Amino acid sequence: MDFGGLTRAAPAAAADPKQLVRSVAQSAGWQCLESGDAWSIVVPIGSLRKQTVSVRFDQKDPDGHALISYSSVCGPSTPENALQLLKFNAQMVMGAFGVQNTASGDVVVVCASQLAATSTALDVSRTITAIAWQADKVEERLGGGDQN
After folding, report:
1. What is the extent of the structural domain holding 68?
2. In this predicted model, what pLDDT tens digit does every residue of 59-79 receive, in sequence order?
3. Domains held by the chain: number
4. CA atoms lying within 13 Å on the CB side of residue 148
5. What pTM value is reported for the model?
6. Would residue 108 count as lying in a domain?
């Protein structure tokens, strides 16, 4: 491509998003349960805690671009914690708090998405690590246990 005398090479074709996530999980030694377009990755948080990050490959942005979507459950959603968690969104390292409807009721999650076509192994690693760590810290504050 030519930009006013500056030449820039076209970006290389993106890796298969599933293979990218699989490679990152294997390299990190994380347990990865693959099931269609919805995977679960268990990330150790220190020596005594762990956090499960759900990774989805079937989501798209409003323009139809494929996404890699990440989420991790922190605990039950309640009117008491909802506003407080929304206020914390501005302080998040990566991602944001959200609410997901589950069979057992609404739960608070930390979630993030990336464009699949431009994601790199470093992006995937950073995102999974940040989502897991932040969700675990909130889970610990909301209930003290290590259930997710």
Report:
1. 16-143
2. 999 999 999 999 999 888 888
3. 1
4. 25
5. 0.83
6. yes
